[in-house]
Amino acid sequence: PAPAVSFSAGGQTVLASPPAPTPVAALMPAGTVAYASGLPLGMKLHTTLSMDEVAWLVRPSLPDLPPTPCPNCQHPTPLTKWSCACCGLLFPSRVPAAVQELSGYRVLRPLGRGGMSNVYLVYEHLLARLGVIKTLAAMDENEHDEQWRIEAAQCLAREGELLQQLDHPNIVHVYDRISNHRGNFLILEYIPGPTLEERLSRLSSSGVVVQGMPYPRYEALLYGRTVATILEYFARLPQPIIHNDIKPANLIRHASDGRLVLVDFGSAVQAPTDPAATTRLDAYGTPGYAAPEQYQGQSSPQSDIYALGATLYHLLTNDDPTVHPLTFPNLPDLPTDIVALLEAALQHDPAARPSAAQFRTNIDHLLKYEGA
User: What is the pLDDT averaged over residues 97-101?
Assistant: First the structure.
């Protein structure tokens, strides 16, 4: 049976009965606060819990940040909660043992699942900061064969190597790369705030249509300009980078200063030095935002221009391009100058699309009149 425990704010945890064989620190770092669902800060909780539950409930002091969506139902949930009030999901149940056992980090909750990787919100004790751990999907399961695991590990390693070369205020930063007998892990900057997708109509992970609304034109164009400047930065690198998966879900509006941050470099590759050459892809991004050449396993920096055009189309019309890839039926409903901007970016021929610098200049011209 689990021992009776008593814990409270103030930095100390006292066990009310002899400790169980499971090792749990008797003293927590200064500033540690005990949280439980609905428990006010500073209130003592006397109950009988397993030691794993104690380790989960005794959490570091967290900054006042916006809620994050529940990974199951997308209901916004404060960081101080360990379960979803809407669907009842216990967040620890979605965290693999290999992630929970990483030394120096407290795993707070899952943030999202992808085709090849999952991400988790963590607290780094030594530096007293939040971060994100990204690791291979289903690392505690056997649903993937060995070849898949090798390719996924190579993809994760490439993402870490690329991010370590980048330094831009609108690109997520990588803090560390960890490899051990349990797997490979990226420790990334945590960007609090909503993705641009969260305002739009979209299909949820459970297949339910979530109703949204388009962005105001000026705001959408400002976001498009920011992404264009990121693509200009990629083009100026000694070996340019292709992101290969630009879309509203990979663009986060920072809660503290409003800046837009591009995340998820899992599909990113370095472009060939020959501007006319294309890069062979193992995956082609997200249907609806991916350029036509990506479906053929090829990409170039111009593929990101197409994805930016598709992203702006979604922001401005609230019409999800993943429902009808490579077609944009609501384009004629937009003002003619915006139609011209997007049509240029959405050309099927990569050579006919503007460069990132040209696209940013064209947006600047539109912003001058939109803001007048």
Answer: 87
